[in-house]
Amino acid sequence: MKIAIVGYGVVGRGTHELLLMNSQQIAARAGKPIEVKYVLDTKDLAGTPAEGLAAANMDAILADPEVELVVEAIGGVGPAYTFVKAALESGRHVVTPNKQLVAEKGAELLDIARQKNVGFLFEASVAGGTPVLHPIYQCLAANQLDMAAGILNGTTNYILTKMVQEGADFAATLKTAQQLGYAEADPTADIEGIDACRKVCVLASLLFGRHTPPEKVFTQGITNITAADVAAADKAGYRIKLIGQARKMQDGKVLCMVTPALLRKTHRMAEVNDVFNAVTVHGNGVGDVLFYGRGAGDLPTASAVLSDVMEIARKGGNIDLVYWEDMGADHLANRLDYSIDALVRVKNYSFEEMQARLDNCELIDQSGDELAVLVRGVNEGVLEDFVSLIGAAPYIRVFDC
Ligand code: HSE
Fold it and tell me: Buried (b) or exposed (e) across 15-34, using 16+ Cβ within 10 A?
């Protein structure tokens, strides 16, 4: 099968390299050899494995009837969306690790793929090389799934790990994550939780069969997390992780968000460190299932991209189980309606006063005029009002699913 790789950055090139590295085994398992016929990128490909394969533009790729599949690895929505749509409409299969594209345009692109009877697969878009999406729609298909939640961004997990273990500086650690090829082109997407939000949206859409728009998902990153938060969490018996969650609540609504969260040190995801991702999925038959592995980087992501390419090479056509529709966002819950436990750090406020206002409070630490207090079973709307009224630092919720 002849394919084209559009976008030859970390993931595009990694995909090509892994294909060349394991070509015989890949051919045997895919049922046919897989060959990169074209690479499209604005940069000079001389000296790369793609030397001599440069395509003039997307039209040139789509004009070649030999090309059956396009790997889109540009990222973002602009040209990536135009190219993917054109490829699907021309009857080409598409594989992509592009979580923004899938999160924002997945319903529309899946619909085109279905109409054209071609594959549109994106295993690498969530948790990089760690298989999560296929297990959800294949191995766990007999379950009613009500939760997918976890550590979905390698860059922020790498930074938090270095802050906790080595007291490392935020900016320097981010720079290392960029050098290692973990971070997005604009790392704001990582540290502000936007990348994790897109992945949660893909998970939620797949789990619940309804498009979950990123702009409707409450998203906080890690830029406000301080050494004092890390120390207070530690004292209370928790680790701080950036957690993305999509959970069906008892009222049937889907609670979807990305926030820093406290995980008990004994929680199965508390020791997921460095660039590793972990996702817990809960089904009514199977209970909890934990997926763990590398969430970013060239070859780990290429591993997932190529397995999608191989699946399409074997099966061809539309893969029916992967589908969701855009029916608005009225399935989403308002986080302020639910009860949470949270760590609150306040200044110039007495513990007794806090206890009087919020009921179930436990003093974790007191240093000068600063308190760290664990509040249990509080309505999030009430807590948010309280915190903004007294000008306290953002609270950090407990995640105990
Ligand atoms: N920037 C992303 C991360 C890459 O750090 O997880 C993988 O999606």
Answer: bbbbbeeeeeebbeebeeeb
pLDDT at 318: 66
Find the 189 Cα to ligand 1 centroid distance in Å.
9
Q: Of 99, 162, 199, 241, which residue is the catalytic one?
A: 199
Encode pLDDT of 48-66 as tens digits. Answer: 999 999 999 999 999 999 9
Indicate if ligand 1 lies below 6 Å from the C-beta of 295: yes
Between the CA of 140 and the centroid of ligand 1 the distance, in Å, is 25
Burial of 255 (0-12, 13-18, 19+ CB in 10 A): buried
List the residue whose alpha carbon is closest to atom 1 of ligand 1: 183
* 32, pLDDT greater than 90: yes
123 lines ligand 1 (CB under 6 A): no
Q: What whole-number percentage of the chain has pLDDT above 90?
A: 88
**Mean pLDDT across 237-247:** 97
**Percentage with pLDDT > 70 across the chain:** 99
CB 151 within 8 Å of CB 273:
no
Domains of the chain: residue spans and CATH: 2-129+298-318 (3.40.50.720), 135-293 (3.30.360.10), 336-398 (3.30.70)
